[in-house]
Amino acid sequence: MSKKQFKAESKRLLDLMINSIYTNKEIFLRELISNASDAIDKVYFRSLTEDKLKDIKQSDLQINIIRDKDNRTLTIKDNGIGMNEEELEKNLGTIAQSGTLKFKEEMTGVDDKQNDQDQTSLIGQFGVGFYSCFMVADRVTVISKSVDNDKAYKWESSGADGYSIEEASKENRGTEIILHLKEDSEDEKYSKYLEQYTIESLIKKYSDYIRYPIKMDCERSVPKEKKDKDEKTEYETIVEEKTLNSMIPIWKKAKKDVTDEEYKNFYMQKFFDFEEPLKWIHTKVEGQYSYTTLLYIPSHVPYDYFGKDFKKGLALYSNGVMIMEHCEDLLPDYLGFVKGLVDSEDLSLNISREILQQDKQLRVIAKNIESKIRSELESMLQNDRVAYEKLFKAFGMPLKIGAYDGYGMNKDKLKDLLLFHSSYENENKSDYTTIKEYVSRMKDDQKEIYYASSETIDKIKMMPQVENVLDKGFEVLYLDESVDEFVLQIMENYDGKKFVNVSANNIDLDTEEEKKELQKSNEENKDMFAFMKESLGEATIKDVRFTHRLKNHPVCLSSEGVVSVEMQKVLNAMPDQGNRDIKAETVLEINEKHPIAEKLKALYKDDKKDELKKYTKVLLDTAKLIEGLPIDNPTELSNLICDLIIK
Questions:
Q1: Are 220 and 238 contacting, i.e. CB atoms less than 8 angstroms apart?
Q2: For residue 171, what is the DSSP state?
Q3: C-alpha triplet 135, 314, 128: angle, nearest 5°
Q4: Delimiting residues of CATH 3.30.565.10 domain(s) in the chain
Q5: Domain 10-223+235-243 indexed as CATH 3.40.640.10
Q6: How far apart are CA 549 and CA 464, in angstroms?
């Protein structure tokens, strides 16, 4: 028996595959099981058309895993097509030589009845998966007997130095791959791959839906038979063969054959959730790219959803074999809360089958999934409002951020899915509304959509500016989340109706007569306002003026420009602002119809400038308090109020 060299750049290429192509050692088992499944596919396919193989029964086809702790070997055994000496030389002696790919090419054009997709959609198209076993084994032995040959052969290699092939003894067709595991080190405990729990976990994770049973002898504790009913129960360990995989994925079944309970149980077991999902979406798409999806919308926010360790993305399968646990490219960020999987035969995998190549197939599937989820959410909003509001309470924030991110590139897709609190109360006693619903209730002559923003709904309701808008019969959106106002600003308008902050200086609710009256009053008192502004300091506020926007309240702050008072608070609270202090351009507005207006005029007319300064300072600080802004000197404010009280 002579040692042979690999035909494909031997040592350097094999070292590259072991150390670079595969980043996760545990996938070696996935690769070997996938290859075993391919081999069984081949023999089953031939049994459908060849008389000499007609005795092969699908029920007898299986994969076996054998653990030998004493000899540190792990064996993966199948009763598939097997290989003769030439095929061992060709398939294992040449890296990247794929018998599977050749077989798939040969099947092209075969009669559809024979070419059953569920039986012939093969996985190993690159011929390199086998070599992943060298990540965990320092010697690999392959014993194989072809279905077309009475002789069996043994292929053996310790890595890049080469391999040998010789005749061997094997009774039945198929292939046995025997891994002689490496010795444990501080960095890696290779002996874990001989543990029952580890093997079961890896099968469940990567190969649960291989269509053939994967069997292994497993230990379990059972109570011994009692001789006396009062005798203490003792346990013994028995060994029995166990099928480790489910074989038939729930998503491969027709929807009519899956019960609601099965959908729920699959979700709770697969995604480790203790609550049932709010909704699931099961679709099968056939066409240019064929794939199946099973998607779930959770009923609550995962505890780590907003943490840095949370992984979004759908599990990606190729014919029941998991390729990626979290394929982020299949979901946009704003739908990152959706859980589920995609199974497709049409994906272009990279050489190690670990990651997906960035190609048109992926983009098309991702786009279709995004559209499907949005469509289902729209349907839920229309037909099951209670469920949708529950969803929005949990995941409304990422939907709003999705509308804002990327300079609003998704705003048109999401605008009708967004809910906001409102002064309008519907028949269901819900204060949630869509912007579309708000617009449908607008007065005939109303041109703007009004909103108010603060930390809580209660604070918004107490804002002086809100009272006046409500008193005039207009509905107000209550924005109580930090992102809300940014979303409306990026949207700019809805069906031509502009969004207007009730605290903005440009809000226009007065009649023409009221406008002229106010303009005249501000003009007459412009010198007083100039003095008041000067007394506060140049950088404090932009202007002081009278207003009609307040019903019973004496004073408020309005804003000019893009940044509102509430946006100022949000931006300055962000952790990456450094030493920047973002300020809204604010105007101190005083209710012309409140007694305080006459008091200020009298102080200015009587030249009581010092007292007018005190009133101005008190009015500004109280307006800041109403807006939730900090005041510069609380002690000074307290002293000023006391001085004014005792006079």
A1: yes
A2: S
A3: 25
A4: 10-223+235-243
A5: no
A6: 8
Q: Where in the chain is the domain with CATH 3.40.50.11260?
A: 402-501
Radius of gyration for the chain, computed over Cα atoms and rounded to the nearest angstrom: 36
Does 3.30.1360.120 match the CATH number of domain 250-383?
no
Contact (CB, 8 A) for 616 and 587? no
Question: Which pair of tokens denotes residue 348?
Answer: 């272009």
- The pLDDT tens digits of the residues spanning 522-553 come to 999 999 999 999 998 866 788 999 998 888 89
- Which tokens in the block code for residue 273? 């959730």
Q: What's the token pair of residue 480?
A: 């109580």
Q: Does domain 512-646 have CATH number 1.10.8.60?
A: no
The tens digit of pLDDT for each residue in 311-346 reads: 899 999 887 888 888 989 899 999 999 999 999 877
| pTM > 0.85: yes or no | no
- If one looks up domain 402-501 in CATH, what number appears? 3.40.50.11260
Residues of the chain with CATH 1.20.120.790: 512-646
The H or E element spanning position 403 is helix 385-408
Handedness of CA 237, 239, 244, 247 (dihedral sign): negative
DSSP 8-state symbol, 64: E
152: enclosing H helix or E strand: strand 152-157
For residues 490 and 411, the answer to whether their CB atoms sit within 8 Å is yes
501: β partners:
451
pLDDT value for 360: 79
What are the DSSP E strand ranges found in 487-594?
A: 493-494, 497-501, 543-547, 555-560, 585-591
Interatomic CA distance for residues 56 and 74, integer angstroms: 27
Every domain of the chain with CATH number 3.30.230.80 lies at 250-383
Q: What is the pLDDT of residue 104?
A: 53
